[in-house]
């Protein structure tokens, strides 16, 4: 790997990578070669443009000179040569004097992705876009973040589950449901593993987690919505309230960001100009009604008093938390039952409020969590209240008819976390292959 060259001693080496830059000067040629780990400068000091009868290596030198002169950017080559440490070389302090350069696969000369290409061109040519070091880093960060979360779950003895993405009914709002032909009937793409992660509680699994695709037929073109996104889900038993869910949530976020800082802090600083900030625990908690009042007192009224916090409200409450409490995260708690799904548990003393929360990170909702209602009669009544007939919920209600412990969990959008962590303008930048209302390719 190219990144390991600096630690090696001078001497013969063999490297492979993509041609990133060519400087073809009269007496010397330079090539910058990149692989997924880094870049190195190659030098051809034996430039020969005309045959030289006195030079026994004339033919080899001529061939090498013209091969380098003809290299197109993005061509994949292998090179053997002499590694030399040289402090004056900015790129890693080493260079390779080329002995032999072999083109493995050449690139078309008209690379459609230039540095200033717009997001749509870059997404059309995502494989070329992903060759950029900052894009590569996004997915290394994602790998580290997911790994750290998995470690927390595994340390707590949770079980990883893989729930079906083809379903017979909706699991969240019916308005955002993708329908697919399914033999003689219809199936729906899972919007969330909600029902199945709760099923694991009735199945006696204790704690479960899943990191998997979720689908929402949401026609919006915002920077935070995708029609297919990666949902980070967990659910666990024996909780007293949504407080327990928030405590696990904090632990996971802190573990994820600590690992990202340790493993990629320097690279993130270099490529994104950002310091990774690991939040302190506990994260601030503000009941939704109070949060609305705070933003109102600061000059912004959430459009409908009985509605969810809108994006502007989220930005404003986050600004307040940042100013007053110096925190990037805030749990908005105790949402009105009228704006929450039927399966959220309500407060004993105040059934108009749910034991639920949204987690806001740098002004954007990244997660919803709650304690779930586990008493089947209450669950049925809450479903009816939302216009859902218990018969429609068939198998789901059965989970609660054979003994189920109190439980709760959350779902978190992985793309949103990455977007906010790396301060990117859109979820498109941090999704391997983005899916939106007008994008199904590549
Ligand atoms: P909710 O619908 O709030 O809750 O979704 C949870 C989180 O998933 C992410 N998300 C999205 N990300 C990108 N594009 C979308 N279209 C999109 N929709 C949602 C968000 C959101 O906060 N079953 C509950 C979770 C639970 O209670 O366990 C649920 O799905 O980051």
UniProtKB/TrEMBL annotation:
Q: Which domain of life is it from?
A: Bacteria
Q: Where is the Aminoacyl-transfer RNA synthetases class-II family profile domain?
A: 139-442
Residues bound to L-aspartate are 172, 216, 368, 372
Record-level GO cellular component terms: aminoacyl-tRNA synthetase multienzyme complex; cytosol
Q: Where in the cell is it found?
A: Cytoplasm
Catalyzes what?
Answer: tRNA(Asp) + L-aspartate + ATP = L-aspartyl-tRNA(Asp) + AMP + diphosphate
Q: Where is this region: Aspartate?
A: 194-197
This protein's major location comes to cytoplasm
Q: Which GO terms describe its molecular function?
A: aspartate-tRNA ligase activity; ATP binding; RNA binding
Q: Which PROSITE patterns match?
A: AA_TRNA_LIGASE_II
**Alphabetic keyword roster:** Aminoacyl-tRNA synthetase, ATP-binding, Cytoplasm, Ligase, Nucleotide-binding, Protein biosynthesis
Keyword Protein biosynthesis tagged: yes
Tell me the GO BP annotations in alphabetical order: aspartyl-tRNA aminoacylation
**Enzyme class, one word?**
ligase
- The record's EC number reads 6.1.1.12
Q: Where does ATP bind?
A: 365, 413-416
Asked if the record carries the keyword DNA-binding, the reply is no
Family matches, as PANTHER family: ASPARTATE--TRNA LIGASE, CYTOPLASMIC (PTHR43450:SF1), ASPARTYL-TRNA SYNTHETASE (PTHR43450)
The record's subunit annotation is: Homodimer.
> Per its database record, what is this protein's job?
Catalyzes the attachment of L-aspartate to tRNA(Asp) in a two-step reaction: L-aspartate is first activated by ATP to form Asp-AMP and then transferred to the acceptor end of tRNA(Asp).
Similarity annotation: Belongs to the class-II aminoacyl-tRNA synthetase family. Type 2 subfamily.
Identification of the protein by name: Aspartate--tRNA ligase
